[in-house]
Every structure is written in C-alpha cells, then in structure tokens.
Amino acid sequence: MPDIIKLLSDKIANQIAAGEVIQRPASAIKELLENAIDAGSSKIDVIVKDAGRTLIQVIDNGCGMTETDARMSFERHATSKIRSADDLFNIRTKGFRGEALASIAAIAQVELRTKSSEADLGTCIKIEGSKVTSQEAVQCPTGTNFQIKNLFFNVPARRNFLKSNAVEIKHIIDEIERVALPHADIHFTFIHNGNEIFNLHPGTFRQRIIAIFGKKFNERLVPIEEQTSIMNISGYIVKPEFCKRTRGEQFFFVNKRFIKSSYLNHAVKNGFNELLAKGQFPSYFLFLEVDPATIDINIHPTKTEIKFEDDKSLYAIVNSAVRNALGKFNLAPSIDFDQETSFNVPPLPKNRPVFEPTINVNPDFNPFKSSGGTSSKNTSGSGSFASFSKKTSGGNYKINISNEEIEANLDLLSSTTEVPERNNQTDIFTDLTTLEQNSKEEKATIRQTQYDASKTFQLQGKYILTQVGKSLLMIDQRRAHQQVLFERFLLSAQNQDITSQKLLFPKVIEFENSNYALILELIEDVNAMGFELSDLGGNTISVSGIPTGVKEEQIEATLELFVEQCKQNSDKLKQEHLVTVAWSMAKGAAIKRGRKLSSEEMGILLDELFACTSSNYNAKGKPIVVSMSADEIEQKFGK
C-alpha cells in the first residue's frame, strides 16, 4: 500500500491558519491594532476603503522593527512574546501566537513599512500570497505602516462569503471599540472612504466611553470599583432606566483584553435584580484584573474566550459589585425596617369636617330577577377583565376573560408556531400565507363581516375585542398596527410607489459613531421607505421627509430602533435590506401598548389589518389575533 499522508506546503498551511484567524476585514484590523498596542504606540490610525475589501491600512508610532524582525514577522509562529511554555500562563500582551501576519500575507497583497528608533532607514517589504516580491530600504518615520490590499484575492470562495459593506463596517467598528475602550491613553482615528468615523483623543475611561457612544452617556454611567484578593473590578454600569431591549453596550475586559462571557453577563444581569423590565438587557463597561496564572487565554483562535480557574468566585464578586454600585447611588429599591407594616394614612387637613361613611343599598335589588338580557361589558378599557353576559332560561350569567388569559393565549400561539426560514425578501409573504392556512374559513368570515362599533371595545389599552359570527376575537393592537405598516412600507418600496410627507422644518439627529457609520451605508434603503435623509457630517443626519404613517415625534426613535435592529441582525442584511428596514420602520412607528383608541380608530385599524396579506400572524410569525369560539365560551360556563 503506498504512503498517503503528506506534509502540507507552507502556503496551504498559512491559508488554513488564515481561515481560523482572519475571517473578515475586521479580523485583520484587530490583529494589527493589537500589534500596534504591544509596540507601545501612543497614536494609531486606521484607514479603510470599501469596508476593507480594497484597502486596510494601520499606521502606528510605536517602536517599529529592524530589517531582520520585519522579515521574520511573516513567518508562522514567529513571536517576540513567548520563549517557553510557562510564558503562556503569564501573558499580559495582546498578541502572542505569531500567526497573524503570516495568515494575512497568505490571503492578501501586503506592504509593510517600518523603522526602529535607532535606525536611520526603514524597511519596505511587499508580499503577495505568502511570496515576498520585494524588500528594500526606505525613508519612513519611526513606527509601522501596514497596508493590506485586495483581501482574499487568491481565495475567491472566502471573499464571496463577505457580507455587505454595512455589515463589514459594523464588525470593524466593533473591533475598534473593543481595542480603544481599554486603552483610553492612546489616540485612535478611523477613516472609511474618506469619512472620519472616530477621532478619539487620549483621556480617562469615562471620557473614552462618551467619545465613542455620545455625550448622552455622561448621565447614564454608574461607577463600580471593588478590590479583592481574587480580582479587582472597576468601570461603569448603565442606569437601569437607560438599558435597552437589545444587547447593546456590553463590554468585559480581562487584563485589558476584550472577552465574551455569558456566565459573567448573567452575574451582571442578576445584580440588577428587579430593576430591569421584561426583555431588557444591562449595559456595562467593566475591567477585571486577575492574575494571568489563574486564566487560560489560549482556548480560542480569536482570544475572545478565556477559561477562569475560579469562575464561581468571580461570579459572586461581579454580582456583588453591581448590587453595591446600584445601592450606593440609590438606584436599587430599599426596605425601611424601621417603618411599621401598617398603611401610611396621611393626616386630614385642618378645619375639614369629618363625616360618617354611608352605604347606599337598592331595596328593590333581586339577584334572581332577569335583567332582560342586557349585556354587561367593560367599555372603559381600564380594567383587567373583559366581561360578557349570556342569557339562559334561568337568567344572565357572566364570564370574565382576564388580560393575563389573552397574553397567555398569544404566548402559547407564539411558542407553538414555527416560522419557516426565509432565504430572501421575495418569499416572505409565502411563508406568512403558510401560517394562515389553518384559519382560512375564519378569515373569509371576518372580511365579509361589517363591524359594529358598539360591539368593539378596548381592554387595558392593549387589546381590541370584537364579535365576528359566533366567535370572540381578541386582537393585539400594537402587533396589528405593526403588520399594517410593515406591509405598506414593504410593498411601497418594492413597487417604488413611496408616499412621503415633507417636514416644515428639517429635523437634525445626532448619532453615536458606530450608528452614524451604519446608517450612512444604508441611507439609500431608508430613503426607499419614504424617508428623506441627508448627511450633514459630524455624526449628524438631516431628516426633511418621512413616510406616510410615521409621526414627526417618532422620527428619532424609529431611526434609532432601525439601527439597533440592523446591528443585531447584521448577517441577514445582505439579502433582506428592504424587509429589515420595513420591519424596523413599522416597529418604531406603530402605536404603543396602553394607548386608548376610539371606536372609529379601532374600526379603521381592524379594516386595515384584515385587508393585509397576513392578518393572523405578523412578519415575525407571532400571532396578532386570538379567537374564542362559542363552544369555548360555553365551556367557560361549565356547559
């Protein structure tokens, strides 16, 4: 039998390593930034074109490299950080494996210019697909200038897996934030296609947070600082009232290295206890200082996951630190143990007469007397129960349907409904139609029925209740309005039949750096929905027109929600721009739960809902309508 096991060539080995280390342009930027920090740089510039596809350039003023070191840096496992296996457990630098530059050189056209402070001339090395094409002495400043051109030029399959520019820029910004936050003493700049996204001057950690995420964060931050024999923790958490319904600003840094840890994230969330509303997530910027010998940072190629020796103790310390910070600044609820358990009855005003309470009794009341079939219903919309009467031979019996029961039905339908995966935006209504198959007869009945406004009312400002045929329908008013707006926005964009309304005075909105960069990439898609946005520079956008159906006071919230949705679903943006934009706009512009509607408004909303392509389920597959048949009502009476 012939031998079949062969050694891989260096070129193929480097490309395999590149697949693990360099997954996208952001990965290359992360490696270069870490090298620049380890070189002792006080200023780092990042210049990118076409979201990193065409050019990635990182310039630093660090110690630079000698000619020999510059050439050796492109060899696999060549590193200045490790000399023995014991060094792996005493690492305080960013990079240490010696794979980054070799991996980058294997899948791009690279040019390195570097000079040490002692040298008179620097070195310029050009590499293409792991092959050195030239090396010469050049005049250049002390430090390193690294250019990566045409990333994945020789691995077209990998290049095809890159997402849209908006997605790739989002990942690049994430990596720059993760490096710039723990190194507030370094001056960072980031320029994309000639536009300055970041210009972060040296300062305190708090100043760096505000410079990246906006001035509004100044009032939102609560400081944390605890020192123990196991770990020191410092940084900031965001006040509960400013926490979001998306996983936004969540940053853990262990020895100034960004990490991801669902375990420690749970410790923070648990520390907020009852202060977060349902569906909200905590925001935080926390530094953990631990002995390098008690952690293993070599368990993942990107080094974003680490292993702790005593993770249970770390959990308890983080949880306690969060609770202490919230309590110290009076953000956590407290119990007054000196107060009596009786009710606090305020004293009566002086000179106010005191009257004996009276009880009014109807002497003609007979509980067994029939009231003639008059229906009793709660029309105020403020109670927690909806009441319906049924006339029988023995009199009237009343059935109560609670607000919780409606929500339970909606949640049950939501949990048992499987939404088909969509490959692109064109088949979205096909999927929704599939969800509707079980209710065709009911839907036909609904559309043929004329609504009686006097029999349609609102419950808790959340649900619309009405009778159709022999069934009681309960409609989630917010989901209903979302679906109406979603289909309207999406169809208008697809048919290029946008109706928008001009604003008398354009509204200027300032975004944080990352959101500003993302909305610039998607500005054409947003305008396709009926907005009229224009870039004013300096992280500001001018809004001169809005889609019909969006109110002026909803503009900022709608756009911010759209950006957050895009950030959380970035991998889907490439094929589903319009769907993502339409849903985000609808979600931001839909009426809020708790808003009281008139009978006329409820009737219009129901007419628009049941004219939709999908009226029983929204675009996310969640139920809009819950139906209770006459038989189910009979069962409530114990029949």
Question: Secondary-structure map with pairings?
Answer:
Elements: H1 10-21, H2 25-38, E1 43-49, E2 55-60, H3 67-72, H4 100-106, E3 109-115, E4 122-128, E5 131-138, E6 143-149, H5 156-160, H6 165-180, E7 187-192, E8 195-200, H7 205-213, E9 221-227, E10 232-238, E11 250-254, E12 257-259, H8 262-272, E13 284-289, E14 295-296, E15 307-308, H9 311-328, E16 385-392, E17 395-402, H10 403-416, H11 428-436, H12 440-448, E18 457-459, E19 463-468, E20 471-476, H13 477-494, E21 500-510, H14 513-521, H15 523-527, E22 532-537, E23 540-547, H16 555-568, H17 577-589, H18 599-609, E24 625-628, H19 630-636
Parallel strand pairs: 1-7, 11-13
Antiparallel strand pairs: 1-2, 2-6, 3-4, 3-6, 4-5, 7-8, 9-10, 10-13, 11-12, 14-15, 16-17, 18-19, 19-20, 20-24, 21-23, 22-23
Put the structure in a nutshell:
32% of the residues lie in helices and 23% in strands. It is an alpha+beta fold and 639 residues long.
